[in-house]
Amino acid sequence: MFFCYAFEGRNCSLKDRFTYFLLIWTVLYEDFSVKCSVPSNQLHFNESYVISKIPKPILVVGSMNVDITVRVHRLPMKHETITSHSPSTSIAVGGKGANQAVAVSRLCQSNMPPPKFASNFGDDSFAAMLRSTLSENGVDLSLCGTAADRPSGQGFVLLEEDGSVSSIVVGGSNTAWTGLDIALLTKAVADVGIVMLQREIPEEVNEAVAEAAKAEGVLVLQDVGGEDRLISDKLLNLVDFLCPNESELQRMTGGMPTHTEGLVIEAARSLQARGAHHVLVTLGARGSLLVTEEGQVLKQSALSPPGGIVVDATGAGDAFRAAFAVSLSEGQPLNHSLALAAAAGAIAVSRLGAVPSLPSRSEVEALMLTSQINKIAAQSNGSVSMTCTSEEAIEVDNKHDIQEGSDMVEEAEYISSLQPPSTSSYKYPSGSPLGTSNSVSITPDDCTLRFASRLNSMKERLDLWSGSNDVFGWVDRMGAVAGIDLVDFNYPQHLEGLNPSAVRAALSAAGLQAGAVSIRFPSSEMQMGAFTHPHEEMRSRAVQIAAEGCQWAHELGASELVVWSAFDGYDYHFQIDYTSAWRSVVLSFQELCDLCGASMKVSIEFKPTDESSRFSVVPSTGEAIRLVQQVNRINMGITLDVGHLLMAGENPAQSIAAAAQSGHLFGMQLCDGYSRLGAEDGLMWGSVHPIMALEVVYWLQRVGYSGHIYFDTFPRNEDPMKEASWNVWTFKEMWKRARALRAGEQMESVLKEHDALHSQELLQF
Fold first, then answer.
1. 755 is catalytic
2. Residue 418 covered by a domain
3. Which of 78, 157, 376, 476 is deepest in the core (most CB within 10 A)?
């Protein structure tokens, strides 16, 4: 079957077919992880943790629930009632324990004994259905009891159209554990190979089982999902693999940011500092990261689900962890275990429900093989590389922070999400502190961010430019600026009436790419407000304009839509209903995010005051964060403009820290100024507040900022090309200075001690 699949619809030569044959033979009959396996001597468990040559069952200790799934277009906001778009609910077996037990049963090889499941049935009509389903799936229920005075556990699942799920769990019989139950369970640990725990049962059960497992030399995996409570340092130290998803990792670490892989690693290592051993973090579409106790980092990319559509993510994490445990129980290396887990999770999200979505071993292996074949088939000229691919686990050097100069193995896959610049050689103005030469070599390690500058600035000093004074001429002029990689367009100001293909051609000719599209609502229509206009039809018109800008962003290959409205505010007391205006902004952004699609970032660029509205409805970083949280869309975030932050009386670095900690910092716009008239001066970066500017760069490094840098400056008398290039050079110099401050760790010590004098000493140039 696989041979037919590989050649179907392909014009393959005999040589190609023979190459595919060898590939499939290798995948099926040799060690799948031969290309990127981790030698066993590089991962150290307790010496007694040896997987027996005689197969032992996996023990799953956890919850069982009746999952009641409701389909919704979106989640309700506080105090809001919404209607399901399906006339009925679906009912299925669920609960992390039951899901994982069934998943293990379906994934085990034929020579493995069935998994043992320890849980409690409720005393109600659901119990028979739960028992029957688990038994039919080959789960050993000999360690399960019945809670005579409790109903079955229930999970109420809200399933959104994109497959995202949110759940509320009612514990029921899962809370009914007695001392006798725990004592019997700890004795049973001696006869199993691996223990899987999760947190929808009392913590005392997990601690007792983990302690018994450690004494017996049995490997323990702890799923962090379940009750929202702190996990004890005792339990952290007892389990071998701690397995949170991204939101659980944030919760466990007190809100540490995780929006880049480097930050995920930092958060995982903070748990290791508390006693955790190996931390395996699942990141949804971003794959997974395993941070080992020895300091290794293994990255596993997500696999595309069969059919290419995420239907329901309810059981994906359970399928992933079960597959990982099964593979470990078979003695497979970590890379193979992560690949098997990724395939299991990919299949699970392609189906509705928890238990109904869990795949068989043959399905998982088929998807792994298909992914390998597709990878090879996509390569040009039929050439086949047997190196580790993006759909397998890649071992990464433990110096993960790209701006700290980390070295990557083989593919040099950057573990942070920062993108390297489009070229490694930049030209800078003569007389720069780097020397008199116009050409200065800057390596990607110096700064991996990309840069854009204000397109309207290219209208200035036309006496220095012989090209046309229109959008195409400005793009052409921007392309001649040393260090600029991207163009941020305004809509409709720059793009209305143009052909997307012509704009793309102009970008290509200039050696540039589109970074973002920024909305500039026309004053002729929106003087009384855009998203806050008093009339609904005009608010809808504002959303339509922004959605048109989003379409342009898609057409040009830009990654972000930035919304700034000079008109969403007021001038007088008793002029607007603040609550109603806020609500209108929330609803407008919700509609816009949905229209743009989850792949397009949508951000608000707040400005506290403007001549068009003296008070903004969204006047601060804190309010912008609150707005994003209430919009509650995965593609909604914040673009911070330093000029606007100065106008608001904020410390820009503190605003960056707050926005990044919330997980919503999408964009950065930089300039400097005095703000003597309460206006935005748009002066060159770092020209007025150099220490402030350095702290901004320092915190962009620290939070792992991964967007591009846009210089929102207004050169009216200066050569705009040299001014833009100078901004890039200044930022890069500050980047190196910030990196030096971070590398020495003295600044971190200063910040912990609030030592202002020592800070000033370190900042002396």
1. no
2. no
3. 157
